[in-house]
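Quick board copy: two proteins, each given as sequence then tokens.
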Amino acid sequence: MKITTTKFGEHEGNTVYSYKLENNQGMSISCITLGCIITEIQTPNQNGEIENVVLGYDDVASYLERTNYFGAVVGRVAGRIDKGEFELNGQQYSLPQNENTNHLHGGPNGFDRQVWDAELIETESEVGVEFSYLSKDGEAGYPGNLTVKISYLLNNENELHIKYYATTDKDTLVNLTNHTYFNLSGNVKKDILSHQLKIKSQKILELNNDFIPTGEFLNVESTPFDFRDGKEIKEAVLSEHPQIKLVGQGIDHPFLLDENHNEEIMLADKESGRKLIIETDEQSVVVYTSNMLDESFKVRDVQSKKYLAICLETQGLTDSIHHPKFSPCILKVGEEYKTTTKYKFTTI
């Protein structure tokens, strides 16, 4: 196993470094200090052919030009906060609105746009990088100096472990996730409509017209959102269900997970034979079938379009600060925010 460090570019006077983590099985993960972005994941198909299975760019400018959050860590709070405001400990806080009236993924200058510090990790069993960032009190409207550490660790079992850690000096909100777009066909040969998706989830969050949770849980049984037995993604996104049509004929919904660390999320592509198994500490996974991608740009040499990839964002429930029956994403002084998600790349 080894790590290769190169210069990726610059942002606001800071050098952006790229780290390529390689194991002994031919798998590699490339990530950069801008937004902890995962730029490539190279994995073998059923014939041993190694190809990239995520969307990304090869330069800093492309990541900054668009707000699709390819491969990035988003925060302080992933997802949408209704009207960009919340109350905590009797005080009202206002956040920048960057999606109509919503505050989305930490705002227009969130964690995905920051250059993080990095330390390399090399042991007998894994290679990785630990990113760190101090989000200062008042940044993007949030209270507290928030110290954040994100680790990407690759082992010889073709497993990527993402570990999130944060502490604060004032009570604040934290709900972190990674926003990688997966396409297991290899080098984006096709869209993900024929990918098989399986999720151990009986309930999703219903969304209103602003894509904010209504607070109601919908049972997936007899709906397009029932992935408990696994099915092709197109069976869901091509349906006439009002929640599918609401978000642009696709999925952009939190699924409440029934289990943790027991192969609760699985994505597979029969043609390439690749399979991704995701296990997490988190309460939910936001499934996004890239139904909002437009056709005005290219992802490397591939034309952007709907359903080009799928995001599987493990996180706490969206907009939980406004819903008392959700588990809150409040981090208190003296507490630690700690969560891990594992991505295992294998074949069918």
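And the next:
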Amino acid sequence: MNLFLMGLPGAGKGTQAEFITERYQIPHISTGDIFRAAIKNQTPMGLKAQSYIDKGDLVPDDVTCGIVADRLQQADTANGYLLDGFPRNLAQAEQLKLIGTQLNRQLSAVINIDVAPSVLEERLSGRFICKNCGATYHKLYNQPKVAGTCDVCGGHVFYQRSDDKPATVKNRLKVNVEMNTPLLDYYQTEHLLHTVNGDQAIPTVTKEINQILNNLS
């Protein structure tokens, strides 16, 4: 079972990825992880990637795809894999299709965890942190037991990280919507796309994904 997991930041991909990889015993392949491994192991593609990173340049699609192709040839992908963070554009999607054909590791399905950006804005911009001890809270899901007082140290000063601030979160989601939309259209045309409502309880989302994957088996 060869899968690509999609969803905007905060949609719950990490939680569902854990469920999928544990239940189906397939590796979770995140582009960040395989880049770091390729660079650490000084593979030919890893060295190429490092040369661009050292200059502050974006790693070209052909190098990224080469690192993914190397990873998909490893023995632990024989029974399947779960891709996360790749492909990121149509050129990479086309290249993945070619790699899959060459390695007999074609995608079985694309699972998209769909949550409205407005909901995700609340999820992602609600986090705040105790300035004294670093304890983390959320205005919707995890408020201090006593308003304005840290449960851990009793401090009264809280702050938000810059990447949790509403304007930053909104822009981050906008960029991801623009990036994901062509891919969703592409995989819809390829008859691989399965969309799950991510604005439900975690067990419900898990159950729906499981039903989709059982139908693929």
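Board note added afterward: The chain has eight helices and eight strands.
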